[in-house]
Write a structure and sequence with these properties.
The protein has 328 residues and is mostly helical. It contains 13 helices and seven strands. The N and C termini lie far apart (89 Å).
């Protein structure tokens, strides 16, 4: 009897791949060797380049992390516009605006530096916002955008030495105004320059104004006595004052990793979203602080109501259009 069938069967059982599909490794290897030499060299160089880029990026982050980077110097390239009668190029127009900003800064620096406002006719100053130097802080991002870096550094040197836990004696700080001017100014200046001292000062401002939310509903009082560390009691607050602090507190939470700021400001949105309204999406301008109810029939996109709608739109965009509450 012939043994050939038995031997073939045994070989097939011991080495099943002889009768099946080749492995993935084998197929890749076969395709590789079917390439001509030039193609193999090009592919190898490409793979080595990608590997080198990845290694270099990892090494940069280890030895010189981007968190310690001093930030970019923003330069906007000029765009020629020969058809404009008032200025031949965008560059000339930007230079004119930059010159006007430098003129304004020099006047402020000479006659009112560190104070809240310059009085341009008398060349005197006032501290009508409590003495934090609001003009200076609110102008920091503009100075940076216009590449007025020396002036920016002058402003930063002053701002980081301000004690925001103190204000002019007897002064009560307007909560909303200082959020959009002082907190926002410090946050934007930090995000442009990445000077950590500015973020520390922004956090201080956020903290000294936070007592405004110490109400039974979380709807904020309109003024804070920062010297006493407490809010000034009131019965009502306008829509714009309560609803135009969310972006700054959200960004502060994002940058510091502390959710307390965003949570406090977001509670206002949640309350107003649930309260009864005469028309969907339209809000009367006065809010009862203790109940959270809207108490006025007046609806306006002007003063006392305007920035609420502005901030809802901006928060919707800031959330990457994922939070439908802001769109409503």
């Amino acid at each position: 009897m012939s043994l050939e069938p038995t031997l073939r069967s045994e070989l097939s059982d011991e080495r099943p791949l002889l009768n099946g599909e080749p492995s993935l490794k084998s197929r890749i290897k076969a395709k590789w060797y079917r390439l001509d030499r030039v193609s193999r060299v090009v592919f190898s160089l490409f793979a080595l380049t990608i590997g080198a880029v990845i290694v270099a990026r990892v090494m940069i982050e280890i030895f010189d992390p981007l968190d310690l980077w001093n930030g970019p110097r923003i330069t906007i390239p000029p765009r020629v516009d020969d058809g404009n009668d008032t200025a031949h190029t965008d560059k000339e127009r930007r230079a004119a605006v930059r010159s006007a900003m430098r003129h304004a800064w020099e006047g402020y620096h000479q006659h009112a530096f560190g104070h809240d406002e310059l009085l341009p006719v008398s060349n005197k100053s006032n501290d009508k916002w409590g003495g934090w130097g609001v003009t200076l802080i609110d102008a920091l991002d503009t100075l940076y955008i216009m590449e007025l870096y020396d002036e920016f550094d002058q402003g930063v040197t002053h701002a980081v030495n301000v004690d925001f836990a103190k204000a002019k004696k007897g002064y009560t700080t307007p909560f909303f105004e200082m959020i959009i001017r002082s907190l926002a100014g410090l946050l934007t200046a930090y995000e442009m320059s990445l000077d950590r001292r500015l973020l520390d000062k922004a956090e201080q401002v956020g903290n000294v104004l936070l007592p405004a939310f110490n109400t039974s509903t979380g709807i904020p009082y309109p003024r804070v006595d920062v010297n006493a560390g407490q809010a000034v009691p009131a019965s009502r607050v306008c829509l714009a004052e309560a609803g135009t602090v969310q972006l700054e507190y959200w960004k502060l939470s994002e940058l510091t990793g502390n959710p307390i700021y965003h949570n406090a400001a977001q509670r206002v949105v949640d309350i107003l979203d649930e309260t009864e309204k005469p028309y969907p999406g339209l809000y009367p301008i006065w809010i009862d602080i203790e109940s959270g109810n809207l108490t006025s029939g007046q609806i306006t996109f002007g003063g006392q109501g305007d920035s609420w709608y502005e901030y809802m739109l901006k928060q919707y965009i800031f959330s990457h259009k994922k939070v439908d509450q802001y769109r409503r």
